[in-house]
Description:
By secondary structure, the chain is of the alpha/beta class. The protein contains 17 helices and 16 strands. The protein has helices at residues 2-32, 45-49, 56-65, 75-90, 167-171, 190-195, 239-251, 301-319, 338-345, 348-352, 367-370, 411-426, 441-446, 474-492, 496-526, 531-551, 561-584; strands spanning 94-95, 105-113, 118-128, 136-137, 157-163, 179-182, 200-203, 233-236, 255-265, 268-276, 281-291, 327-334, 354-360, 373-377, 431-433, 451-457. The strands form 2 sheets. Strands 1-2-10-12-11-13-16-14-15 form a 9-stranded mixed sheet, sandwiched between helices. A 7-stranded mixed sheet has the order 4-3-9-5-6-7-8. The two termini are 21 Å apart.
Amino acid sequence: MEMGRIIFNQIHEKIKMKRSIILSILCFSFLTGCSQHSEEKPVDYFSLIRPNFTGKTAYETTDFVEDYWRVVGNTGFNKTIYLIADSLQAAGYILEEIAKTEDRLTYRIEKRAMDNQTWEPISASLQIASEEKPFLLSATNRNMTYLNSASTPKEGIKAEVVWIKSIEDLNNTSVKDKVVFAEMSVRRLYKLVVEKGAIGIITYDNPDYLQPEKNKTSIQFRRLSSQDNGNFWGIALSYEAKDKLKTQLQKGKTEVLVNIQTKRYPSEELTIVANIKGSELPDERLVYSAHIQEPGANDNATGVGTQLEMAKTAAKLFVENKIDFKRTMTFLWGDEIISTRRYIQENPERAKGIKWGISLDMVGENTAVTGGTFLIEKMPDPSAIWTRGKDKHSEWGGEVLKLEDMKPHYLNDFIISTFKEQGKYANWVVETNPFEGGSDHTPFLEADIPGLLLWHFTDQFYHTDNDRIDKVSQETLKNVGTAALVSGLQLINASDFFVHEQIQILKEQAINRLKDEIELTNKVKENGGSMSEESLIVMAWFDWYTESLNTLNDIIPDENKAAKQAIVEAQGELSSELRKLGQSLNDDVFKWKF
């Protein structure tokens, strides 16, 4: 009880201070007078985008890109870059080096030296030496060859397979000039295997969410460290191929014939960036990012294709004088995380103007086939600390965050509400997940720039060689691209109406969240749980939404006192709602007073 009273006093003082600030600002606004926000008529971007964004360009681009096993600098990656460049040019974008000052549609291809050679697979086969035919071929399983594998001799190589069931087995077994087979991550074995003289490794490590007993031929791609002059290779197995090899190994000594042909060669890293320059605030920008590397269709040829159709659609409507761009809209395609992080870090002045970042990664799934759900991965909010109620992590999972990791911002609820609007229109399911990380949204967040992820999960073909064009839906591409572009246009042209609309959305969502959390708290109370912990959770959400309302000030001109007052009034309403909800619990820890 004493701990409860201490927490109560802390909360009591915190809310009194917040209330004092709110009342002071309200009094100041009343005394100085406030201008009313203009009665502007908002642009209905959905009505402009829906007839123009069909998903056709996105789908056709996805179909082209997914033909290639894409790694930075290799054939497929570079062909994708130049396909994008040709498409942008046809849409009216001008190469930056020949563009004039007044040109607002521009693009550039950035070229950088690479520390290591690039890589691409050519062919591979795996055969039990005593049998007549290979039981695994790259023609049907293009992910069987580990990324960065060296080639075997052209005629292949014959070697004994040693089955390693644990690290201890490896420490006590001679593997020199042999092939190691293990059902575990290669990261745990690689250094020891190489040091002990093995010539290659064969692994099986498909996670349960891939449903391997159902998708018996799927292979999730794996990688080795870069080795420009090394001779080590790796093969990943499907569930079916793993069972075949294990059955043979259980009979006794087993030799395999392995033939792997790959290419390693010097190349350069390419990144392509397109801009639609803002007319009023050109140094402020929204950045969309989609990574090219990885071998799949959904991951991430769909992000590449969707973003390209977005860039072309935006340019078309701009050229037709149907929309303008108050701030700059930027589209970036490159190497996952690396290209986005570089774009942010290499030019500090440019980075100051990046107001939002949106990542498109796995955005075109035929969910009836993949089993995935379209998700908006939120910026860090309290659901990434306390995941409960309607919140749910994906199978990707994420670390439990701390209060100091929170990123309060209106972007979360704005994007969710916009996508939900498209979902309602198209009968399309839109869900969210707490922050997990691992894609192009993370560099934005690391730089304290609001950023989130558009994606699908849990996908039973994720990172496997069954992630092909037959798992892609043009309808999904259309829905994601439409909502993403509409969201972007609303952000870069944000005005008084936008601000007041977002205040209302944040207020409503905050009150709904507080009600949900209090309901969960009541259940915890009934079961004798810790009310001290519950008070922290509820207060964390209150703080998150209070600060999210404050972030709208970033796009409000200083002279717009009406909008600033509206934010304060909304915060006051949240305080009142919190007090009522807290008192309804009839618990000492929650009897907040003002």
